[in-house]
């Protein structure tokens, strides 16, 4: 059942938006900085945590998987609507804010989702 993933998606989205707005405020920018990306990371982290705890039955897991897969096109659509040329020409901060989360994602994901190999 797809509906089961909506609650986790909503929670992830709200937390991501809060983190993005807070980060923007902390950096002195009147904008959301990476809220959708943070929401996606939260969604994937919650899913993996629920799997490790054994809290996902098959219908619940299918719902969370559906929304995890749907989130990627949403992120791409939202990114495509932004004016990247204007952001890059505005200053070096836009480049740092774009590159830093990608770098941190590559560095931290192997540690966050480390699986035992037998």
Automatic annotation (TrEMBL):
<keyword id="KW-0812">Transmembrane</keyword>
<keyword id="KW-1133">Transmembrane helix</keyword>
<dbReference type="Pfam" id="PF03817">
    <property type="entry name" value="MadL"/>
</dbReference>
<feature type="transmembrane region" description="Helical">
    <location>
        <begin position="26"/>
        <end position="46"/>
    </location>
</feature>
<feature type="transmembrane region" description="Helical">
    <location>
        <begin position="90"/>
        <end position="113"/>
    </location>
</feature>
<keyword id="KW-0472">Membrane</keyword>
<protein>
    <submittedName>
        <fullName>Malonate transporter subunit MadL</fullName>
    </submittedName>
</protein>
<dbReference type="InterPro" id="IPR004690">
    <property type="entry name" value="Maln_transptMadL"/>
</dbReference>
């Amino acid at each position: 059942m797809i509906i089961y993933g909506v609650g986790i998606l909503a929670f992830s989205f709200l937390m991501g938006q809060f983190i993005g707005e807070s980060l923007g405020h902390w950096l002195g920018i009147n904008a959301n900085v990476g809220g959708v990306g943070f929401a996606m990371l939260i969604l994937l982290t919650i899913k993996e945590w629920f799997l490790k705890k054994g809290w996902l039955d098959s219908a619940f897991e299918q719902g969370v998987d559906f929304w995890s897969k749907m989130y990627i096109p949403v992120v791409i659509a939202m990114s495509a609507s932004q004016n990247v040329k204007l952001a890059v020409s505005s200053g070096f901060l836009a480049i740092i804010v774009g590159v830093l989360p990608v770098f941190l994602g590559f560095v931290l994901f192997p540690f966050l989702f480390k699986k035992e190999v037998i």
